Amino acid sequence: MHFEKEVQCKRNDAIDSAVGFIIPFGFFATLFVIATIVDVFSGM
After folding, report:
1. Which of 22, 40, 19 is closest to 30 using CA atoms?
2. Which residue pairs from 19-25 have beta carbons closer than 8 angstroms and sit at least 24 positions apart in sequence?
3. Per-residue pLDDT of the chain (44 residues; tens, 9 = 90+)
4. 35 vs 42: CA distance, rounded Å
């Protein structure tokens, strides 16, 4: 096919997909951990 011969980026799409999943997941997990710590210490 014509469009597959001129690829702009030759990186693996699976790596980009993994990064696109892990970074937002880590962000929301960090928010959850911070909120849990605040909740625990506010109850003391």
Report:
1. 22
2. none
3. 566 676 777 778 899 999 999 999 999 999 999 999 999 999 88
4. 10
Tell me which residue has tokens 């997990």.
29
| Nearest-5° Cα angle at 36, 33 to 37 | 85
Cα distance between residue 15 and residue 11, in whole Å: 8
Q: Look at the chain and count its residues.
A: 44
* DSSP label of 4: T
Burial string for 27-43 (b: 16+ CB within 10 Å, else e) reads eeeeeeeeeeeeeeeee
